[in-house]
User: Fold this.
Amino acid sequence: MQNAHIRHMFNLLRYALILSLFIFLWKPATVCAQQIINMEEHDAKPYYFGITLAANQSNFRLYQAPVFLQEDSIMVVEPLKTMGFNLGLLANARLSRYFDLRFNPQLVFASKNLYYRENYPKPDTDTEKKIESILLSFPLQIKFKSDRIGNMRVYTIAGLKYDYDLAANARARRDDDLVKVKTTDYGYEVGAGFEFYFQSFIFSPEFKISNGIGNVHVKDPNLRHSNVIEKLHSRMIVFSIHLEG
Assistant:
């Protein structure tokens, strides 16, 4: 199952890269032939808005608890990588010629699953615990952009985020199968992308790494699947398409 998710992610990214490369090669050739600069006045706008569509691959960075080495009922605990998607809005404010301030709130559907190899109640049993998340994510980023090359430019982003998990189970009743996670998380984001200027909109493919800093694991020594985990930190790779006006 994990390999299938990973192959699906690579296929998605491959098609996105092919599309971006096609646009990158085709648009400058068009500019050179016709000398038309699209949306030339856009660079002077103090602010503008857009929408975001994205695919994500998420997992946990897992730290094992000391009790994991002291017992033999659970032999292996590992994070799994799974696919999800994002929907969001975008607000961009111009700070200077090369710097913008960007706010990109998103609704993120993700699943960070855990794999266990157990000796109890049956020996050599494989178990997968699904930890589904519906995140309200609020990233605030600084955007560093290059000069325009015809109807294209390159940019990088860096910033901080705050996440609120609508599906968190931290307050769930006791269940021996639970691995509880907190409602809130915070972290950092870094990435890079391209802006392709068309006559009436900007098409921006972007890759970014979005990682949590805080420990989202709610440790409960009474829950056997949770007891062997010390910390969980969220990890996410995101490919986004921004449509901006």
User: Anything to note?
Assistant: The longest strand covers residues 47-64. Residues 2-34 form the longest helix (33 residues). Helices lie at 2-34, 67-70, 224-227. Residues 40 and 151 are 9 Å apart (CA to CA).
